[in-house]
Amino acid sequence: MGAKVLAIANQKGGVGKTTTALTLGESLSRLSKKVLVVDLDPHANASVQLSYFPENVQHTAHDLFFDDANYSEVWNKIIKKREGLSFDFVPACIRLSELEVDLKERKHKGMILSNAIDEISEYYDYVLLDCPPHVGVLLVNAIVASSFVLIPIQTDFLALYGIRLLFDTIKMLNKVMPSPVRFRALPTMYDGRAGACRKILNLIRRKLGDRVFSTVIHIDTKFREACASGKVILDIDPRSRGSLEYMQLAREIIRNEDS
């Protein structure tokens, strides 16, 4: 029984993707799960938040995509363990954006990450993939490798419109995958005082039904404080609304995967 792999993806930026990857990673760790978070976004926002600045990091997720990569050796180089960080982490770099061209002639290029994760799957309960915000070989690799796709959806109209692109990608992959891609939506940046937010949340629930988590992530200024201090919200205020909601999400995921 290997790790459950969650691809955290949305082709619209600014919806809480990186916040979800890092905070959920921390929440699962606090529930005694062994967690690896992999930054696959060339913008490296998760890496920068944790002070793994691309210009200072020699080995990154990019190393997994070399032709001759020995996955066991590569993982040993790229997995970072840091005091004060309860999950393991793999940083990103800007060179991930070059993979579209670099892998153009590579056979089975959509399976690279899946094969790589097989090498370390037995050591983790969960592997969380912080995906890039655009369709391409990296996103395809993440979805193919995943047990399910977690889609953070900001509760506003434009964000709702933007997920159509991701669903198109999932439909395309379903034509060639041995089993359909599983996905669940996570409403984020919710403000219950705003009528528009309430309408969008109701619309998401109506359209997607049981493919929406019961957990809803509200707006919480502590997320920004955590980001500015290079931490996750659970580190700066474990009793804050955002902390409690991500702990609730972690429990919901564990419950759903175990049932």
Overview of the molecule:
- With 259 residues, this protein is an alpha/beta fold.
- The chain has one domain (4-258): P-loop containing nucleotide triphosphate hydrolases (Rossmann fold), CATH 3.40.50.300.
- Helix content is 42%, strand content 12%.
- It has 11 helices and 6 strands.
- The protein has helices at 17-30, 45-49, 71-78, 99-102, 112-118, 137-145, 157-174, 195-208, 222-228, 233-236, 241-258; strands at residues 4-8, 35-39, 88-90, 126-130, 148-154, 183-188.
- Strands 3-2-4-1-5-6 form a 6-stranded parallel sheet, with helices on both faces.
- Strand 5 (148-154), helix 7 (157-174) and strand 6 (183-188) form a beta-alpha-beta unit.
- The protein starts with a strand and ends with a helix.
- The model has no long low-confidence stretch (mean pLDDT 90).
Number of strands: 6
Intertermini distance = 15 Å
What's the domain count? 1
Per CATH, the class reads Alpha Beta
Main β sheet profile? 6 strands, parallel
- Report the principal-axis shape: globular
**Contiguous runs where pLDDT drops below 50 for at least 5 residues:** none
The amount of beta strand, in percent, is 5-15%
User: Which value, in Å, is the CA radius of gyration?
Assistant: 17 Å
Strand adjacency order, main sheet: 3-2-4-1-5-6
Per the CATH scheme, the topology name is Rossmann fold
The percent of residues in helical segments reads 40-55%
SS element count, helices? 11
CATH architecture: 3-Layer(aba) Sandwich
